[in-house]
């Protein structure tokens, strides 16, 4: 059987101290079913761990699940670290309990999409497909 | 910015400890993962490097295989930690394969979850790979990844297979040594008698020693290895017993061994999660490796042979007699 080159690789991470991983696992499963290779990194990770793993895994995107309220700080830290490591081209998206008032700020930081509770699997896939469409691998 | 294989190879050797080298190495692995047919291009680019900057090959390729959930990733994590403690100056690589969906092509690569404490260690490089329809326990990109990890200066490379069943034995043709991870609850001693997976282990790691049944499994593995030894020493040879003296068929059977293991197999009792028996396991691996991957291993030894490629029939030992060694690690 010929090797089948799937869609770009995506890392799913949960930075910070909350341990509620249902959302992260849900998104990992949804992306898997949409044909993505998902590197799942588990709960309670530091921004450094997530970014270093993303560099080694050469992923096209990082999805972060946050329910702790620390999203403004952690998204910024991760985006800064990616730039520091010469991986500023990696797309960052996220999800979790993020108040609507914070969304414009996150967008300004460079977060490509935020999926708040209730977002359908269909919307997630359509959005990720669209965001990664222009990033076909060489 | 898209860089060519040659440019990426140069970038990796330009500053091996730099984050830029790690990123280049990761991109290089992606290229040969997505297009395994470009592997010769990579090998050629490496061979074109100046002698001084040309990498040594990885000193030791350690295969880790076993059924899903037997603790392969946790064991690799513990062994990586032990290797880093023993050899602080050496770099360790890990390639961990998980299955792709035969329906969508997607995958969840979760081996890394157990190894995240090493994520920020610049001397540890972990790469997850999906099987992408390849049967046998590995994926086509593994060979390229091994070359890139060698280029990056990894001394030891762990190759973790997908969770395997009874017949995925490809790892035996790639790794220098195969660690077969077993855990309690996977059946009785008849399972140990079966062909396939049980024939490729060089070190049988009975994991989850914290579970009550583990010691029994360890004892059963030891008994199975002892039986194997007797069979191949001709001490128990049903054919020659049937056909009387000087039976050539019997001799041939005794010589044509089923096992492809290249060293005397050992059985270790380990609890990777509780970090028990890991030191003794790494001792055992080091001891075996000293014998199989000496200074001259590049061409003639196991590491050299292992790089001959996928699909190569695994080498068989020609010696008729082996000693079964028990390393009862967690019992102390």
General description of the model:
The complex is a heterodimer of chains A (138) and B (332). Chain A is globular and about 35 Å long. In chain A, strand 1, helix 1 and strand 2 form a beta-alpha-beta unit. Chain A contains five helices and five strands. The two termini of chain A are 22 Å apart. Chain A is of the alpha/beta class. In chain A, helix 2 packs across helix 3. Chain A has a single domain, classed as Rossmann fold, CATH 3.40.50. A five-stranded parallel sheet of chain A has the order 2-1-3-4-5, with helices on both faces. In chain B, strands 4-2-5-1-6-7-8-9 form an eight-stranded parallel sheet, sandwiched between helices. Chain B is 36% helix and 15% strand. Chain B is globular, with a radius of gyration of 20 Å. Chain B is α/β, with parallel strands linked by helices and 332 residues long. Classes of the chains: A alpha/beta (138), B alpha/beta (332).
Beta-strand fraction estimate of chain B = 5-15%
**Backbone CA Rg of chain A:** 14 Å
How many domains make up the coordinates of chain A? 1
CATH domain class of chain A: Alpha Beta
Measured distance between first and last alpha carbons of chain B: 56 Å
Principal-axis shape of chain A: globular
Biggest sheet descriptor of chain B: 8 strands, parallel
Could you list some keywords that capture this structure?
heterodimer; A: 138 residues; alpha/beta; Rossmann fold; five-stranded parallel beta sheet; 5 helices; 5 strands; globular; B: 332 residues; eight-stranded parallel beta sheet; 36% helix; disordered C terminus
